Amino acid sequence: MFYLDFQKANCKNCYKCLRSCPVKAIDARNGQAKIIESRCILCGHCTHVCPQNAKRVHDDTQTITQLLAKSKGGVIASVAPSFVSSFGLTSFEPMRAALKALGFTDAFETAEGAAAVTAEYKKLLQSGKYENFITSACPAVNRAIQLYHTDVLEYLAPVDSPMVAHAKILKSRYPKSDIVFIGPCIAKKREAKESGIIAGALTFEELAAMLQGKAIGESFAPAAACSQCDGAEVAAASGDSMQAKFYPISRGVIKSFDALPGGYEYIAVDGVSRLADALNDLKSVKGIFLEINACDGACVSGPCAIKHKGGTVEANVQVRNYTNNSVRDAVVDYPSLVNVRKPIAAGDRIPDDAEIKSILARTGKHKPSDELNCGACGYSTCREKAWAVVNGYAEVEMCVPYMREKAESMGNVIIENSPNGIIVCDGDLKISEINRKAEQLIGIGAPEYIFDCFDPSAVFKAAESGRAAQASKIRLEKTGKFVDLNIVPLVNEKAILVVLTDVTDKVNFDAELDKVKAETLDVTTTVIEKQMRVAQEIASLLGETTAETKIALLKLKDAMLKEKNS
Question: How many other CB atoms are found less than 10 A from the CB of residue 207?
């Protein structure tokens, strides 16, 4: 299981996460965004921008709960200094007591490790070996440099992060204990696993859920908390330098120095949107101390920080007040914090120019001027998107302008070649679209309104009711043609679609058929009348002939009888 989980049903193929990802670690094929684990720096920015909340940080509460139950040497928490802004606290003791109530053996501030890291930075800067210097406190930035900016890797401080540094310090004191880091960062989960010294990492959101599940109040009432604390243990926890507690705010690393070593310009850059530019610019300058945080506003605005009214500004005030009210202590002895980071290969294939051109051609981009570089697909340039297609991270069809042009082209072909007339108008019956067939039927080129074409009564009724309607055998004045109307209100588009079907031949055929029927009826009536007269005449003639025959036969009979008797 990776550190970011996805809810497939919620992903709506909007590419917003891809557009916001500084390293394009999103596979957006088949209408489903997925994290490319080998490319991801775990900045967590995609979890904030996803409008459907499809991306979630992998929950480690169950793992840590099991560790608390099974650890033989006890579990010690290392808590990031931004706890004061996430939980609204003014001292560490309530947090420490709450964690002990959860089952932790003890808890200390990661700022102690940050102080040791600052001490190491100071030694390296004073050595004069670094042309430029990049701090190593942010694991997302470190991984971005190792993956994508190896040309400035030599400037990355070869020093552990405050989390790892503190874990080493705690392990030197409590060698049999398991160490768990608690902070606002997703990237710390991977760094903890890769460190080999930290048993796990919780986010502040996960910690809040655990506290709620155990009915431990979020206010951590200081009086109740202190009654559970051992004074000696609290004193031991104060081995951090006061100024190292500035680490979670912008310029916090710079503020952690008692005095800034000379020979450098000290600059802080926050946010993934500025990450690449800052690192690219560093190659052309010298004497720069660069503090970089992947999160806007630094760690107090981490992806898993607990947000409150007042946002980053209020969080800064809380950290500053907490730090300024802390006791200044000397940095304790600490073990070696050397960590020389090496390049990491993402496993991507670098396509040649012919492959790129082939992909571009599939979306109608045959020359440089065709490359819009609009970013709608999520990639900054058309060539970057073509690279993603070659590597199997994207689809050709993700080019929105091309697909729109294709859809419009197909739609225009269908509409223009339709055997029916098609008209689209607005609520005022002003025509916005009309095809050639409709103009032919109406006999008017580019009419402005529906009522210029035919009686609009049926269209008005459909527009008012919002329901589809029909009208039959509407006569078009200019051409004398007859049409049937199918009227469909397009409510979402605030438009009305009118389809005209030419029924002139049918109407004419029906009229001709009615005429034939009428003529046939007239002829039939005349024939019947004549037949009746003939029948009557025949009957009359037949009646006279029969009478004459009867008389003749009777006379013949009498004559024959007379002859026989004589």
Answer: 26
